[in-house]
Design goal:
The structure is a homodimer of 270-residue chains. The first copy, chain A, has 270 residues and is of the alpha/beta class. Chain A is built from ten helices and eleven strands.
Chain lengths: 270, 270
């Protein structure tokens, strides 16, 4: 990190110390992409999205963009309100576990490798998710977030998917791994890795609102993808790229397996 | 906004006032998705990504995720270092215009409707972009970000695209509007709206690094999109949805037209 960057970082800390201009949640949907959204006829769906240290921000921002346009009341939840070191930049949780609405329309968990493993081993996180998940209308995740739902006991007997590198860990916790971009089983909706958050978000929008609204959102965010390459799944990418990625994750995968086995042990004792 | 949410917001302000735990930029790529990235052989590409009030966070987070995995040195730049009210949540700029590296590999501008219009009318923003853009290896945008590049004079004589609702504004500022998801003309690379940031990011990754690296990133973020609906372009969505969205934007589009005409007037006087 350059000296200039460090000087900027110090200045950032000073500015944040003034608390200047920083509100809690972001702009209401009407201020941003959803300026053209019709006034909702129904009450705003209550959504709690877990934000945790080392999370992958894109796992969250894809679905959150869709749900924000759908005029949801979004709570970014963590143990306490405060800064969260995500992969790209710090963000802030807006609602503590204690203050999170008890009855949610949507409970959502993003992924994030080491952050996921920490959550899988954290009773405070798991107890919060198990409680809200027991009543939420939809219990959902993107990427390795499903491993956290699994460790909280919320996927036992449910079909689910996850990041392609860790799908073998789901069954340890009683989930039925099911290949697919977005897997819906009753009120559980889980997405594959990172970018599946967009497909997940639109799928959820249609369930929360209706198909017309979901299509309007799709047009607003111009979601007509044209990947410049065809390497988005292990099958299409081929064995060399798969090996490159998997070889760097041996330690991480061992830790995730251990966390899943510990969860299974807890279930058997309960 | 509920009382509980307001209480949480006050607590957030207090916590941020302590500056607790908040660093400048996020985790290095090696801590997040790119744990498996090979050590780069080349120097880290220097990337400046504009962050501005009322920006659409997803415009930024898609490309930033790709570039972070590619081990780029990412500066989130604004006039000063400090909090920025994006559409979903506050984020923080990490580098001021003054301290931004003079010679960049990538200059990037995200979109954000009213935020875009404010930038199109802001000499400080336009002067910064014109200066860095005159030397940057790649001058890039997603969504309405191309209108800001245009107002800075950086698209005169270049093929470019933008959010589908405002593509008619590009030619006012001398750009050659060209339909497409990602349009490359010499060192200008512009993407369509919001979600085109992923296609743009992978396109840029291949130019900055190589195709193998771009494909590895694509596999890491499992970018094999399966939109649940087929409404991602005006043509596919049909006239009813287009009318719904356009009808809410008449005032905004008039302001963007005016800002573009003012820019054209500046060019003619220069």
């Amino acid at each position: 990190m350059s000296d200039i960057l460090n000087a900027d970082r110090r200045k950032l800390m000073q500015l944040l110390a003034l608390g200047a201009a920083l509100g809690g949640a972001g702009l209401p949907g009407s201020e941003a992409l959803a300026a053209d959204a019709p006034p909702p006829g129904a009450p705003r769906p209550k959504v709690a999205m877990l934000v945790h240290p080392r999370m992958v921000l894109l796992d969250l921002i894809g679905p959150a963009t869709v749900l924000n346009i759908c005029q949801c009341e979004i709570h970014y939840v963590w143990k306490e309100v405060g800064p969260i070191a995500a992969d790209l930049m710090p963000i802030a949780s807006t609602t503590s576990f204690v203050n999170c609405p008890k009855d949610l329309d949507v409970l959502f968990v993003p992924g994030g490798i080491m952050g996921t493993i920490a959550c899988m081993n954290d009773p405070e996180v798991l107890n919060f998710l198990a409680d809200r998940g027991s009543r939420a209308k939809f219990v959902t995740s993107v990427c390795t977030g499903s491993l956290v739902l699994g460790a909280a006991g919320l996927l036992r007997g449910y079909k689910a998917t996850s990041n392609w590198t860790v799908t073998d860990i789901l069954p340890i916790m009683g989930a039925i791994y099911t290949p697919g971009r977005v897997i819906t089983d009753r009120n559980r909706i889980t997405g594959a890795a990172v970018t599946a958050g967009l497909d997940f978000g639109l799928t959820l929008a249609a369930r929360l609102r209706d198909e017309h609204t979901a299509k309007r959102v799709q047009l607003l965010i111009e979601y007509a993808p044209e990947p410049p390459f065809d390497a988005g799944t292990p099958e299409r990418a081929g064995p060399e790229l798969v090996r490159e990625i998997k070889s760097g994750r041996v330690g991480m995968e061992a830790m995730a397996h251990k966390a899943a086995q510990d969860a299974a042990l807890r279930f058997s004792k309960a």
